[in-house]
Specification:
- By secondary structure, this protein is α+β, with helices and mostly antiparallel strands.
- It has two domains: about 1-30; about 45-170, Protein Transport Mog1p, Chain A (3-Layer(aba) Sandwich), CATH 3.40.1000.
- It has helices spanning about 1-25, 30-40, 45-55, 165-170; strands at about 75-80, 85-90, 95-105, 120, 125-130, 140-145, 145-155.
- A seven-stranded antiparallel sheet has the order 1-2-3-7-6-5-4, with helices on one face.
- Strand 1 and strand 2 form a beta hairpin.
- The longest helix has 25 residues, at about 1-25.
- The termini are far apart.
- About 20% of the residues are buried.
Length: about 170
């Protein structure tokens, strides 16, 4: 009887120990990093940030239907300038980021256009301005539905950060 009780007790201890290890592994270092990243950047959910921005400008915002990758995490915030910043991440296979800004009024996008930008035309006939920034980042600035959009990324993270890929993303905004 004592042996059986001791076996049940040891089995219970093992179950508790295995459960504890599983719980610790479930909160991986990556999850902790992301939690800290959200906190440091004062991010909210995309829905919360979008709701705040739409109420502030009294207008619905169109988001891209196509993204350069399938995000595992997404966040948003209102910047100090009052713009909407959305940040999509994938941390499963390799780290990828897609950050874009929605500016109101759309004339704010003019501050981000230079004479060195390549002028392109979106499917709806509006102009878009493609820029090769410094060494790696690529960006596209354009106006749509009374809003300014700045999208872009690092082509070392994702091959869709080229002219064709950024135009595809921009044209997916209705």
């Amino acid at each position: 009887m004592i042996k059986q009780g001791l076996s049940i007790f040891l089995l219970a201890i093992m179950v508790i120990a295995i459960s504890s290890v599983t719980m610790i592994q479930a909160q991986s270092f990556t999850d902790k990093e992301i939690d800290e990243f959200v906190k440091v950047n004062k991010y909210k959910t995309v829905k919360e940030a979008l709701d705040i921005f739409e109420k502030r400008i009294n207008q619905k915002v169109s988001l891209p239907a196509k993204l350069p990758f399938k995000p595992t995490h997404y966040f948003g915030k209102i910047t100090e300038n009052g713009d909407l910043q959305l940040h999509y991440m994938n941390v499963e296979e390799k780290h990828e980021d897609f950050i874009f800004y929605i500016l109101y009024p759309d004339t704010k996008v003019d501050e981000h256009i230079s004479s060195e930008d390549k002028v392109l035309t979106l499917d709806d006939g509006s102009k878009a301005y493609y820029r090769l920034n410094s060494v790696y980042p690529r960006s596209l600035a354009f106006k749509k539905n009374g809003l300014g959009y700045l999208i872009g990324g690092n082509p070392n993270q994702n091959g869709k950060y080229n002219v064709e890929g950024l135009l595809e993303i921009a044209n997916s905004i209705q």
